[in-house]
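User: I'm putting together notes for a lab meeting next week and I want to include a structural view of one of the chains we've been expressing. I don't have a solved structure, so I'd like a prediction I can at least talk through. The sequence is below, exactly as it appears in our construct file.
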Amino acid sequence: MSVFHKFHGTGNDFIIIDNRNQKFTTDEDIIKNLCHRRFGIGADGLILLENSDKYDFSMRYFNSDGREGSMCGNGGRCISAFAQRILKLSGKICFTAVDGVHHAEILKSSGNLTSVKLKMADVTEIHQGDGYYFLDTGSPHHVVFVNHVDEVDVVGLGRKIRYSQDYPRGTNVDFVEIKNGKLLVLTYERGVEDETLSCGTGVTAAALAASLVRPADTYDIVTKGGNLRVSFTMKNDSYTDIWLEGPVTYVFDGEIII
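Assistant: Thanks for the context. Below is the predicted structure for the 258-residue chain, given as structure tokens.
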């Protein structure tokens, strides 16, 4: 029997399990079933909190298709809020993930709601293609700027790009509209194979790409699941000190028998 914890970051929801005892099996079918919204708990992904010799903890992320994935920004914010609860950490947290070391700050916590700021990996290159930008913010993202994002067939177009010959290993796809100084972002997520209500690495990619269209060092972002903020420093065509900030919500706990 395993205890699980359900969190979401602006609608991007996760099953989180404390796996410091290494008892949880990472069988692909089990994780896929747990994330299934009809036959399981339901989530965009599953996250394991594990021990680390050098840092507060280690994060392992699995997409809802059951496969271990690349970095998840909202997941990193959620596991930071979770870790503060169970490990009794201070407001500053340091953990390791598949793309390296991350720092997080708990800005405010009240009841089930926590405001979390997560430092993302540096980005040293943005590729500009024909009508799109491609960059890796811990996960690969194909970013397209549009005039009316609410009219975009996110799943249809996103799936077409995700499975195109240009991306043999697949990619996430973000559709972005700049409106009233804010970024409206919709994302098709690889591994979920559907539109999600929010994507942390996706809004980060959108903000960095937007700096090439309408320069700024901080962007307020609107997703279907809520609002986020991305800030960064650009120097010599590289992006450093990238922070993803927004709310995290604790939903419920439960037990599963595997």
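A couple of points you could mention at the meeting. The two ends are 6 Å apart (CA to CA). The chain has two domains: 2-118+247-256, 127-244.

User: Perfect, that's what I needed.
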